Amino acid sequence: MSIHVNEQQKLFTLHTKNSSYQFFADEHGYLEHLYYGAPIGEADMRYMRYFSDCGFSPNPYDLRGQRQFSLDTLSQEYSGYGCGDFRLNGVQPEYADGSRSADFHYQGYEKIQGKYAVQGMPACYDNGGEWETLRIDLKDEVSGLELQLYYGVCEKLDVITRCAVFHNGSSDTIRLHKAASACLDLPFGDWDVIHFQGRHCMERIPQRQRIPHGIQTISSQRGASSHQHNPFVILANPSTTETAGECYGAMLVYSGSFAIELEKSQLQSTRLVAGIGTDSFLWNLKEGDTFWTPEVIFSFSNSGLETLSNSYQELLRKNVCRGPYKNAPRPILINNWEATYFDFTGEKLLNIAKEAQSLGIEMLVLDDGWFGTRNDDTDGLGDWFVNEEKLGGNLQQLIEKINQLGLKFGLWVEPEAICIPTKLYQQHPDWAFQIPGRKPTMGRCELILDLSRKEVVDYLYERIHDILSNHHIEYVKWDMNRHMTDVFSAALPAHQQGEVKHRYMLGLYDLLERLTQAFPEILFEGCSGGGGRFDAGMLYYSPQIWCSDDTDAVHRLQIQYGTSFGYPYSAMGSHVSAVPNHQTGRSVPMSTRGIVAMSGAFGYELDLQQLTPQDKEEIRLQIQQYRKRSAIVSNGRQYRLTNAVEDRYFTAWQFVSQDGTEALLNLVVLNPQANPWGMHVRLRGLQEDAQYKDIASGKVYSGAALMNGGYTFPTMQGDYASTCIHFVKE
Ligand code: GLA
């Protein structure tokens, strides 16, 4: 049993394989956080509570004689508002009289078998008997605002999920200016935060810094989780490394604007608050209404960052991704975007498909430009009707020809966007986000459709349903190529405009849910100008996401490295593209482009008709290799052997199958040395007493030798040389 309740003491302990979490309702009804960390068995951690008379930290009225008791210094499960806790708050309610206050007190609890669901939003799910749920009920007596805290515990995967649910038990509307999903107080110690920053074409680059006094926010106000900041942070002990030390992860299962706030307080405690972004957020909670916040996934590791990453990777693969491709090998695809951009015909596509077939590629993906009047990125989005003139026939005819070659067919869409010159815009200008009287801000010549409106979601569902049901389409690339500005819904009154961004996300999730339910066999790949919405929310609908628009293999080493801290390699769409690379102009050998792309959901994105015979031979070999290696990459454990951002000589990373019988050791030389020293790594995650054979050289090594002594690569010269050694247990 992973949830223990001591009813008399109102003491709650959550256990996972390698962590314990404890809190209790104190004698005054406050829900005090006691502990999160390495397992503590049945210990009662209340002996750790610390009180001091802290100047200028106020006391609740009923406890005015107890100067040591202040919400400002108390470790809590969820911080209220305006009652003496000056640190980060979880909620900011405003009542009919303009007052703002929330003083939550414990009401009761319920223990539930299985995993709770989050209304209208993606969340972790139970595959059967893996999860337990605890719900704690709290209430602000004066206003009638009720708060339920949900805890989902998955013992074997070492995760605890949380979300907060607000209910208005009063007869007036309560305006929520903030409604965070969870708070986590770490009462003692110094902590580093590792977060994942970036930009279009360079997403999720890890940045580590000590959490200073004051408030720091990792957030996106862009209406998307964004390239710039991922909704995932790690708090690590300053001495924590890949292989040792304590660290906590907090990952939002949400794809819109978010905020993860951190504060180190006057008494040195650290508070993390995570949830929907507060910028312009204002939710009107009417009498009797309930508001669900998105889920946060917490995990703890006492054995370094790689254990934490592997917990998240396994969880996302098994308990977030869905559909038949969740565990199955994904088709090796050729995408025509970097091969043709908008400049293609049906014949050109067919020629690429023929070449693909001869190389062993399994699917052709037709990217942007097949519909409406879209021949560049200034027009067409919204008119989801096939451009038969451009294709030289109808789409089904083209698909049949591609299928006859033995290839599957996939299609790109960007349903959430609209271009002004389109028919759809002429018919429904009010369906796009724009503010009356102002010229809208343009992003890639497009506006965003108002998915907070049900009729817009219904329209998109019908259009896409129509395309998918009338054509033999086995894969959909779901793109979104700008961030939100001019957020205003013509369908909502003034006082509800603060709800629009979140209502948009609910509309998007509804649309994706309906489509993935209607077409359960289709493989969806998420995309937002590459990895601009690479988050756990989108992974619920699409088990893979195009990792970045930067296909330069050397940059991809950093991008995929950063992404791996929270997300599985099976989710990282990764393609071999042309040289010189279209984003950077750099030339990297075909073999290295292959090794990097094979650490992901593999494919090609270049004009196959322009390849040299040697390149074609190399591609045939890559495809054979990928078939042998993909299960280890997709389902195995991963090990970051070097720091791909900081180490400038070479990058090395490793995968080990779950049963420990196979391993892949990857290396790319970034900066070859004159008079070089050896490129040495110690492997990890092998069985000490097993013998592993390098299947290319036939040489055999013991697991203990590879892990303790390590492996020294031979000297490699030239630009970006690489190797992947496949070890198999004898
Ligand atoms: C985005 C995607 C690309 C491609 C283009 C098409 O940038 O990330 O892969 O699909 O759109 O316009």
- The first-level CATH class of the largest domain is given as Mainly Beta
Are there runs of 5+ residues with pLDDT below 50, and where?
none
Distance between the termini: 38 Å
Beta-strand portion reads 25-35%
Backbone structural class: alpha+beta
Count the helices. How many? 13
Number of strands: 38
CATH fold label of the largest domain: Beta-galactosidase, Chain A, domain 5
Cα-based radius of gyration, to the nearest Å: 27 Å
Number of domains: 3
State the helicity in percent bands.
10-25%
Identify the bound ligands: alpha-D-galactopyranose
pLDDT average, as an integer? Answer: 98
* Secondary-structure arrangement, i.e. CATH architecture of the largest domain: Distorted Sandwich
Q: How would you briefly describe this protein structure?
A:
This protein is α+β, with helices and mostly antiparallel strands and 730 residues long. Strand 29 (572-577), helix 11 (590-598) and strand 30 (601-605) form a beta-alpha-beta unit.
Distinctive features:
single chain; about 725 residues; alpha+beta; Beta-galactosidase, Chain A, domain 5; TIM Barrel; Immunoglobulin-like; 3 domains; 8-stranded parallel beta barrel; 13 helices; 38 strands; about 30% strand; binds alpha-D-galactopyranose
List the helices and strands and how they pair.
Elements: E1 3-6, E2 11-16, E3 19-25, E4 31-37, E5 91-94, E6 105-113, E7 131-140, E8 145-154, E9 159-168, E10 174-186, E11 192-199, E12 202-210, E13 214-220, E14 229-236, E15 247-252, E16 258-264, E17 270-276, E18 283-285, E19 290-292, E20 296-301, H1 305-319, E21 333-335, H2 337-340, H3 346-359, E22 363-366, H4 388-391, H5 395-404, E23 408-413, E24 417-418, H6 423-427, E25 447-448, H7 454-470, E26 475-478, H8 500-518, E27 523-526, H9 536-539, E28 544-546, H10 553-563, E29 572-577, H11 590-598, E30 601-605, H12 613-635, E31 637-640, E32 650-656, E33 662-669, E34 679-681, E35 691-694, E36 700-702, H13 703-709, E37 711-713, E38 722-729
Parallel strand pairs: 21-22, 21-30, 22-23, 23-26, 26-27, 27-28, 28-29, 29-30
Antiparallel strand pairs: 1-2, 2-3, 3-4, 5-10, 6-7, 7-8, 8-9, 9-19, 9-20, 10-17, 10-18, 11-12, 11-14, 13-16, 14-15, 15-20, 16-17, 24-25, 31-32, 32-33, 33-38, 34-37, 35-36, 35-38
Helix pairs in contact: 7-8, 10-11, 11-12
This protein binds alpha-D-galactopyranose (GLA).
